[in-house]
């Protein structure tokens, strides 16, 4: 058992991260099953879903989803090629066009609604609603913490001082 509370909480967060990877994998698998009948993929659904309420530039979609602009750009271009989305002029920025679904894209996402709703109800019925609300609140706090930490160097290998986020300098190999 660990006696350093900082390490204990770090261990707990590590467990949360690992379980989140598992949860994300499960969500992706379910999304692939849900999207297949309407001719989408989970990634396409994710990008289209980000702009259902209002058009955004690709960089804005990437920020919202925590993805790279390049990966979202690749998906956005595919969706445009397939007639599921379109680019519009952006009055706020000459080069960063706005991205939005076409009627066909909206129809494809709408085609998911019934199956997605049934799946969500089935899964959520297995968890207490208050626990889901708490989970969402904690996720939002973790996202805010990650956003605040963005751009900072991550800690290096063990041996650094507690709280020292800088990776230790690499030493030169000893010469014999």
UniProtKB/TrEMBL annotation:
Residues 162-176 have a biased composition (Basic and acidic residues). Residues 148-176 are annotated as: Disordered. It holds the Pfam family MarR_2. The keyword DNA-binding applies. PROSITE patterns: HTH_MARR_2. It comes from the Bacteria. One of its GO terms (molecular function) is DNA binding. Residues 10-144 form the HTH marR-type domain. Keywords: DNA-binding. One of its GO terms (biological process) is response to stress. This is DNA-binding MarR family transcriptional regulator. It comes from Saccharothrix australiensis. The lineage of its organism: Bacteria, Bacillati, Actinomycetota, Actinomycetes, Pseudonocardiales.
């Amino acid at each position: 058992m660990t006696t350093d509370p900082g390490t204990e909480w770090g261990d707990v967060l590590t467990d949360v991260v690992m379980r989140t990877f598992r949860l994300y994998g499960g969500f992706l698998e379910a999304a692939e099953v849900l999207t297949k009948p309407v001719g989408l993929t989970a990634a396409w659904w994710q990008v289209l879903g980000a702009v259902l309420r209002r058009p955004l530039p690709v960089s804005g979609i990437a920020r919202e989803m925590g993805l790279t602009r390049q990966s979202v750009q690749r998906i956005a271009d595919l969706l445009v090629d397939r007639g599921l989305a379109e680019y519009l002029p952006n009055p706020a920025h000459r080069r960063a066009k706005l991205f939005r679904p076409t009627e066909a894209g909206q129809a494809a996402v709408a085609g998911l609604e019934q199956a997605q709703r049934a799946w969500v109800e089935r899964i959520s019925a297995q968890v207490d609603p208050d626990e889901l609300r708490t989970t969402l609140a904690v996720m939002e706090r973790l996202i805010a913490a990650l956003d605040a930490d963005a751009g900072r160097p991550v800690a290096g290998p063990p041996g650094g001082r507690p709280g020292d986020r800088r990776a230790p300098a690499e030493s030169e190999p000893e010469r014999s």
